[in-house]
Write a structure and sequence with these properties.
This is F-box domain-containing protein. It comes from Favolaschia claudopus. The protein is about 30% helix and about 20% strand. With about 350 residues, it is an alpha/beta fold. The strands form three sheets. A ten-stranded parallel beta sheet has the order 1-2-3-4-5-6-7-8-9-11, with helices on one face. The longest helix is centred in the last third of the chain and has 14 residues. The protein is globular, with a radius of gyration of 23 Å. The relative contact order is 0.07.
Length: about 350
Amino acid sequence: MLSARIPPEICALVCDEVKTPGELALLCRTSTIFRAQAQRLLYHSINLQTCSMRKVRSWAVVIARNTQLAVLVQALALYLPIDISFDALDAHKVGRVLASCTNLKELRVSGPDRPSGFLHGSNAGWMLNNCFFRLTKFENLYFHDDWIKYFYSKQDQLSVLVTYNSSYFSDRQHLLPALTAVGMTQMSHLPAGKALERIEIGLEADMLPLLQYKSTLTTLNLVRHWHDSQFSIGHAIKAVAESLPDIVHLGLVESEEFLPCSQEQTSTAMLQLFSRLETFTLSMLNVDAFVIDEAPPHDLSDAAGVHDLSYAVLMACPTLASLFTRSAAGLVKHESRTGFGFEEFSMFWNDGSSEW
């Protein structure tokens, strides 16, 4: 019964040192004191986005049978079947559990396909409309926005929203008063009248819609979904440098491979237009070479070529501090590794305050 004399604060410190969910689950069975603290961590952030519906169903059953666990959940990621293949009983189980997670702050929901229109987004909006939690971050790659209007009307604390192919917010300035970051596919769908600080958007030749956020925007991620021979990555860098020179974090990413690969180009003079740039991320799948000024192309299939390109960009941007760091002696220290996800470096979702 030694554990009965351990103060809860000490148990919390012990649990904070546990690294894996399996170890936390073992602690839950150690004693009632450890159980409370371990459950607090174990159920704080639940990621089921890569799990089968069977595992989602099992989790829902556990929460339904132990309602005291539902209030511990503050971050939840789900992958759900689309309507035609979503069993009605499973849908109601998930809906009831969502409603019981009253302290939920971050929610990410995805399905087999990103909703690209009214017929493609899930119409099971009741799953959210019956919930009373107030989110701070919401990634909606499942529900069609028109089916969760009532849910949106209650979200007065939502600061980060990711939703695809929706014009629902473009003319509704009264909705989501705390919104400061959005992720969408089309610039025409960006919400007007908001002091947006972070935007993740599809790459388009016309960047005029971004200018309305010029005084507040600090982070911009441009996602190229298809190859446009008339508007290259080099053109995008030029457009951002000239129209948004005060941007702090800039990311250019290609979401999938296209054929054929291309060569991109920019200049030192263009990069020097950025006055506050701290991080610059390039995630290229269809660019095999990059040219700066009239120098020989940097081969992006070669580690040395990537290193040299990064060095050249760093030299052009004195404020840049990402991946390369400038020492007091003016030297450059390089950190390199293979295999990374764009979100790991992106400053959009995890900007320093996240439940994950």
